[in-house]
Write a structure and sequence with these properties.
The complex is a heterodimer. Chain A is of the alpha+beta class. Chain A has 4 helices and 4 strands, in the order H-H-E-E-H-H-E-E. By secondary structure, chain B is mostly helical. Chain B has helices at residues 10-26, 32-47, 49-52, 55-72, 78-94, 99-125, 133-141, 146-152, 157-167, 202-227, 235-250, 256-268, 275-293, 302-305. The chains are: A alpha+beta, B mainly alpha.
């Protein structure tokens, strides 16, 4: 035997009270996820929907990508190739292992397409921190990926 | 008559919904098919009120905004997320028997989430906010603060430029703007002995302190004001605090999209007899637009308009 259902007016009242809270609940869930990613994968606090803008110097302009290509015994530093600029920007914002690996693979492919035979591509995401009293800038490694051919 | 086909009380939801439609048109998204769909749907809706007040339209707009965020993730800024949540709030409100009340409730809780999370980041999660490093660096490197720094902190343009060169980090293209002596390897903590010290003044330190604690306390206060029951807080205090925050924040740091969203949420919480408050919100929207979009806004900031430093 089924339990009696609530009268429609009560259900309507519950919907009217609870449904308007859905956007705020969604915002809270996203913000919690964003905070988690800032701790696990170094997501920039300015991004990800956690409302961390204007709370820290850790923003896009304080992060950088460094790439080294090893070709035999020669190691050289290279700029981010133009076709990979957008990908590098995303990797700097969220330097997850997958993103760094994909960026390294992209660099490897471009080097090979250019006729070189690199044996290793090393990608680093670095962030500039500032000393407490002097604001002296110092670079800190966030994450590194080494791709071997 | 079902809520889907009934036009809501114009005074309650028409204004915030129309302002939101305008905001969507002023906020381009770099995903071309999302942008095209948004512009077409919103333009038609603004010209055809029965569509503008359809909950189905706003749920479609929410899906488009969500797709725009997901496709560009993690690059979108906070106001992109907030716009998506707000569009969803409109769709939900229009599907309910009392859209005005529902939209006001949604706005209130979104404001609580935004301001309390912003306060949490500044006061708890961030490692470089409370000690003044955030504003200490941003006042010298973020060009939006240049006027404030030169007018209030006693630094001249040359000192600001010199400081910016000292503090600037490598950009995302991997090209170090700084001299090679900064490139001393990972996790470097070596002092940069060949770098000139920052030309900070006592006024600069005071400005950093005022901005650091003032911003945190203002955001925390607004979050709490909207969290507390309406009958505890006079309407003038709640709306006045939000208007004041937008006035001082978005005339100095012109992030028009975010400012508009906060103001639209404020409008949606007004009631029929609060015409003056509604007008104040609309005027603030126009002021934020002027500061954000007109070419001269980057040279003539709110401070100069108020005669500071003249």
């Amino acid at each position: 035997m089924h339990a009696p259902t609530a009268p429609p007016s009560s259900r309507s009242q519950h919907r009217s009270v609870l449904l308007p809270l859905v956007p705020a609940a969604l915002a809270t869930l996203v913000a919690i996820g964003q905070w988690t990613l800032t701790r696990t994968d170094h997501l920039s606090p300015w991004k990800g929907g956690g409302f961390g803008m204007f709370s820290t110097n850790d923003r896009a302009t304080s992060r950088g990508i460094r790439i080294w290509v090893v070709d035999g015994e020669r190691e050289r530093r290279v700029d981010v190739p133009s076709p990979l600029l957008a990908q590098a920007g995303t990797a700097a914002t969220l330097p997850s292992p997958d993103r760094l690996r994909e960026l390294a693979q992209g660099v490897m492919s471009l080097e090979q397409a250019g006729g070189d035979r690199p044996t290793q591509v090393r990608v680093q995401v670095v962030r500039t921190d500032y000393a407490v009293h002097t604001l002296a800038p110092r670079r800190r490694l966030l994450r590194e990926h080494v791709l071997e051919r | 008559m079902s809520p889907v086909h009934r036009l809501p009380d114009a005074r309650e939801v028409a204004l915030p919904i129309r302002l939101t439609g305008i905001l969507i048109l002023l906020s381009p998204i770099s995903v071309w098919y999302v942008q095209a769909a948004l512009v077409i749907l919103v333009t038609v809706a603004l010209l055809h009120p029965p569509l503008l007040f359809s909950w189905r339209l706003w749920l479609v707009l929410f899906l488009l905004e969500a797709i725009g965020v997901i496709r560009r993730w993690p690059i979108p800024d906070n106001h992109d997320y907030l716009l998506a949540y707000w569009v969803l709030a409109i769709g939900v409100a229009l599907a309910l028997p009392d859209p005005g009340s529902a939209l006001g409730r949604a706005a209130r809780w979104l404001l609580v989430v935004v301001f309390l999370w912003a306060s949490l980041w500044k006061g708890v999660f961030s490692s470089d906010y409370l000690d003044g490093r955030f504003y200490g660096v941003q006042l010298l490197t973020d060009t939006r603060f240049t006027d404030m720094t030169t007018l209030l902190a006693g630094l001249d343009d040359a000192q600001v430029l010199e400081s910016r060169a000292y503090l600037t980090a490598p950009d995302s293209t991997g090209i170090d703007r700084a001299a090679p002596t900064l490139d001393v390897g990972p996790d470097s903590a070596a002092p940069q002995a060949n770098r000139s010290p920052l030309p900070v003044t006592a006024r600069f330190h005071i400005l950093v302190g005022v901005l650091t604690w003032g911003t945190l306390l203002a955001e925390l206060a607004i979050g709490i004001l909207f969290l507390l029951p309406r009958r505890w807080i006079p309407e003038l205090v709640r709306h006045g605090s939000l208007l004041a925050f937008c006035l001082f924040t978005y005339t100095i740091v012109p992030i028009g999209g975010f400012g508009w969203l906060l103001l639209i949420m404020g409008v949606s919480m007004t009631r029929g007899n609060q015409q003056v408050t509604r007008i104040a919100y609309v005027l603030m929207c126009l002021l934020v637009t002027l500061v954000t979009h007109l070419p001269w806004s980057h040279k003539v900031t709110g401070l100069r308009l108020l005669g500071v430093g003249s």
